[in-house]
Fold this protein.
Amino acid sequence: MAIIVNLDVMLAKRKMKSKDLAEIIGITTANLSILKSGKAKAIRFSTLEAICKALDCQPADILEYKEA
């Protein structure tokens, strides 16, 4: 897939656990895991906004495009 999800990198930079982020943004750890692994087909803007707010980052810090 051409979209790379760098959520695990941002979690490490912020020294936050996936479980804590999931709780803050209001999604299950299973859904967060699907997003982190890059297996998600879509992400709601409201979820992306909540992640960026919780991690104090920009969407480009989490999502990256690489030509396949």
Remarks:
- The mean pLDDT is 95.
